[in-house]
Task: structure prediction
Amino acid sequence: MKFAKVTKAAITASTIVIVGAAIMALPGYYGGIATKTLIYIGLASAWNIVGGIGGQLSLGHSVFIGLGALLPAAMLLKLSVPWWIGVLCAAAMSGAIGAAISWITFRFRLGHLYFALVTLAIGELGRIIVIGTEFLGGASGLLVQYRPMSASGLQLSVANQNVLLALCFMALALATSYAILHSKLGYRLRALKGNENAAQAIGIDLFRSKATAMVISAVLSSLGGSVLARYDGFVDPEVVASPILIISIALFTVVGGAGRLWGPVLGVGLLFPLGEILRGNLANNLPGLHLVLFGVILVAVIRLMPSGITGWFASRFRSACRQIT
Amino acid sequence: MIPPSSGLIWGLEMEILYQGVIQGVLIGSTYGLIALSMGLIYGVSGITNFAQGDLMVLCMFMTLTLSTLLNLDPYVSILITMPVIIAVTAVVYRYLIQPISSQQLMVIQLTLGLMFVIQNGILMVYGGNFQRVPSVLDGDVLVIGDFAVVQTSLLISFVATWGLAGVLFWTLGYTDFGRSVRAVHQNAKAAALVGVDVRRTQLIVVSLSAAILAVSASLLVAGRPIHPGEGLHYTVVALMPFVLGGMNNLLSILVSGIIIGVAETLGNVYLNGPLGFAVPYAVFIAILIFRPQGLFGSRS
Result:
């Protein structure tokens, strides 16, 4: 048992190192896409805690991502507060907002649709507040330039810093998802997702479970927003604080398989690089083609493999096993 | 220079307030109409289309094309946009949504996917610039009494909205079709048992809601610029009255639309800049804090 755990940890660690080294070796353009893919995998995993494992389709997570992206940049530019302090402030605020949203939506059992509708309105409100707040850069956004780091003779370029940050964030989001899936909270959430009445009848506290998931997911999303903004340098509120961002992340997750550990990884890993390359090549002639494609793929996946690609493979694998034995 | 008397300032203030409220009631009625199209679908099938705003923007761009090609006025082009949007919606509903309509979460995800397809499809065809659809009523204003000046197009939307709502309520209340709709709304299984064709009723109601969208598109398009990316905004503007009205009480949805409309205009009158636009959303969330089931919804 102990040996298996050690091997697992070693394999995970070496995978992370290999992925990181491979991305740093990639030429600039593709290295950038790969770094962003890692960040989006982390963001999708964070969303998956509420949207997949919790089964509550949140469309308001853009508030957390936007706050995480804009607040540290604004504090660095306007108050000269170190970046990481801003990151922690944004994460704390996102956690508080997550708790407030949970309080509004989970106090009474008002259903999935209600939650999706209300969080979408909250996401839109967040976007408008960001655009109207001068401190956060208003409608024009913020531009921050980061410097290379050097410690004891080792120089770390900005791009490589971002690869490291993206890797750490993705690993944190995946580890948290793994921990939740294998903890009491995960079982409670899945029980509630399966049947709220039955779960509450055996004593599961709906509000507490869902609010906990929401706060964890909000803090993670905010951290991801900070990493994303640091990678981009220029923070555009219409991108990081728009509900469209979280709808695309939700869409990636659903295609990969919502509620599963590897769903967000597979969904983002397949769709995001495809979208970036299409956007890079066709933005002048056919803007939006990649998004039309995402929409079509999502509709097809929902109708053909309702539990996402990972879910489809899992059920295939199970039935294949049954046939062999 | 004569210093203005405080009475004059007070009068001016009140005039701005009246003006804002009237404007809000007029525009809010149309928001309520879009919300009504959501409420109708929800009432018979328990689902919500998150692409509703984008379907309306699609109608708006159809009026743009009809205007540039055939020189049709937006009010006339309803005759063409309505059948087209009904056909599109009915096909999408029948073949994509109805087979999975028992799984609410999946329907939401699917309509979000459709939202991407419609929004970016329009973007690919028309490009990302703001455009205007000319109308005979451009710039026309009416003076009501001696205290308010309103755009004629807004007044027309108000009258059309309540006229349409009246016809709708009459249909639902006093015709066989209306009775079957209410039967499906109350209990689909029981309705099926007494011989109501549930799937057909749902399909007709979805078509009806698409027709309402075509009308709202033409009402809104007069005098305001249109953009492919606005669909989500309209969806959110419509979902607020939809939720406040308790999701299936049609009259309270219309009234809630007016609340959102008034909040929007007053926000823009009294708060400068983009934060004025935040007022309706803030009002919406504040109401939900005290009445989570909506203003008119009942807690079950």
About this structure: Residues 2-239 of chain A form one domain. The CA atoms of residues 62 and 241 of chain A lie 5 Å apart.
